[in-house]
């Protein structure tokens, strides 16, 4: 994989607040945005907090519920602004990812590491590779994999046991060590020795959180037709730092501008909607929720959906640019029904726009932390009915597993709301062979 440094892609937005600047050549990370939102009150803990506009959130879930990546947030909100912590009783997962401080260079998780899919990840291309994390010897696993793929036949059991437990830093370190030792990428070796959905699941693991999302976006836009579900699930809901990392890694991998690739595969208002998504100009999660803006957004959403014509761009602008914490507050204020926003989207939109906006709002509806109920439902949808939708099962399972704590919540929610025997039991009943064994190892007990 190339590690050349690239500047901002053509047409990139100005590097102001909400768009982390590209790192200087030779550095691995993003600086914090130069500005910060003006002081205002918020729902979060701290002296300046307000109660939500239409009653508290559901039991056990606050507006700040999310999963932290372990780094400290950027320098706190301006003096006088409320904090972003959840109200009393909310699960203590920390703040969802915002713009991190300069990216960690030492190879092990630590303060300043990029957070992607709720977990800390090594700097993706075009940044230089990170050093192996402390306590992990990638060359030992290189030898295990070489033996497993040497000569006639493949030791699939050894491949599964070696790869399934690795975290994002370990799999990245293993990939670099393998190529340095063997002279061939680990992915190419895996693809040469395996096939079918076992190969597909291993690819998702070997590429890591960012690399696999890059591969998925390319896959969604490659060939005839567009895989709308992949674009929705990979691009909708990304933080600003995640989106910039994804765009940079896409360019480093395919030598193309991701925005242009996606735009050329879409048309009309759907194209405009995804252009908005890819600008990396969302409200940051560390910013306190403004009750006045919540009420204004609720009013604007209802006005935009009222009457003969729907103001689609107004609705998209609110649902796709606000922070997850803000959208959860909007969802509770919009309707006393838990799916009030979803019902509005279904009544006013159709086709790909409906699917994309539903993905945005369903992540903030319900009692569970951000996206947990939605992911559990999507996993079940991959297996429900006649025939398993293996591609969806693979990318939904592998994308969800990187943050183990959040994945445990997803599995608990799945057992509670989708299938009482649990995710692993359900997956084992829908798959077979090494494909089944690998997914079971990834899911765990």
TrEMBL record:
Residues 41-52, 61-71, 79-92 have a biased composition (Gly residues). It comes from the Eukaryota. Residues 1-137 are annotated as: Disordered. Pfam families: Annexin. InterPro entries: Annexin, Annexin_repeat, Annexin_repeat_CS, Annexin_sf. Keywords: Annexin, Calcium, Calcium/phospholipid-binding, Repeat. Residues 121-132 have a biased composition (Pro residues). One of its GO terms (cellular component) is plasma membrane. One of its GO terms (molecular function) is phosphatidylserine binding. A pair of annexin repeats may form one binding site for calcium and phospholipid. Belongs to the annexin family. This is Annexin. It comes from Pseudomicrostroma glucosiphilum.
